[in-house]
């Protein structure tokens, strides 16, 4: 679960609310060893609680990966998030800063999983943190009550390959995730907070070499989709896309379903390598018919 989910809910003893329990959303990454890593600021309310008392619980659910029922899924076949067959897992321990020897590896994995974090304000004192388990893990994945898993048993499990990683094994090796080519001009683009873009509903973006190019795309998007007579980018970039966003969590512009991008993810490819990703081919068809309806 921790390999396929990008966020969860952290629970702390509230320093500002008189000691009552307090829950807050936090993004995280698992490097493949079962340890969870976070990118947090001392300005955050939960981190202020941790500074006073480092004991925390952190909960993830299969509902966070889109496997369980939501407003846009078929609830007759997908379990409700509270149904025991929609698995949920709670870690309990103490939160601390990541050791300096681990920082580079955590940073690389975190920013690959959550690329927007790279552009967050530098003055907020961001740091990487992890949870040292102090109690058994609490797991519900079927009827009959929770299972308690010792930390030793949890860390002894050899993780299965995440779907996005399996796709990468079948496809080309990883490529750049912070560069692109403008769909209008074909010019090189470095993806920064200041880079011109066209935003789609539910968070995806296409990047452009200028504001004028972005406006041109908005006015005539179909002119800049990869057509049957167009050649894709050469080599691996043409297969995986540029930027390479495999493994990143996005949301469908039509359904708002959570997507972990893989080689199999439905998409509308733009000229010069960027793409818009969807949860299914039905949503792709809707975008083809009325693309302007899905601009933010």
Task: Outline the structure in words.
The structure is a single chain. By secondary structure, this protein is an alpha+beta fold. The chain folds into two domains: 154 residues, Electron Transport, Fmn-binding Protein, Chain A (Pnp Oxidase, Chain A), CATH 2.30.110; 126 residues, no CATH class. The protein has seven helices and 17 strands. Strands 1, 2, 3, 4, 5, 6, 7, 8 and 9 form a nine-stranded antiparallel beta sheet that branches. Strands 10-11 form a two-stranded antiparallel ribbon. Strand 14 and strand 15 form a beta hairpin. It starts with 6 loop residues before the first strand and ends in a 7-residue tail after the last helix. About 2% of the residues have low confidence.
Helix and strand composition category = alpha+beta
CA radius of gyration is 21 Å
Figure out the total of helices: 7
User: Overall mean pLDDT score?
Assistant: 89
Distance between the termini: 31 Å
> Helix amount, in percent?
10-25%
What gross morphology would you assign?
A: globular
Attribute tags:
2 domains, Pnp Oxidase, Chain A, globular, 296 residues, 17 strands, 9-stranded antiparallel sheet
Topology of this protein?
Layout (H helix, E strand, L loop, with lengths): L6 E7 L7 E7 L1 E2 L5 E5 L4 H8 L2 E7 L26 E10 L2 H14 L13 E7 L3 E4 L6 E3 L1 H6 L6 H8 L8 E3 L6 E3 L6 E3 L5 E3 L3 H9 L15 H6 L8 E3 L6 E3 L6 E3 L5 E3 L3 H9 L7
Antiparallel strand pairs: 1-2, 1-5, 3-4, 4-7, 5-6, 6-7, 6-8, 8-9, 10-11, 12-13, 14-15, 16-17
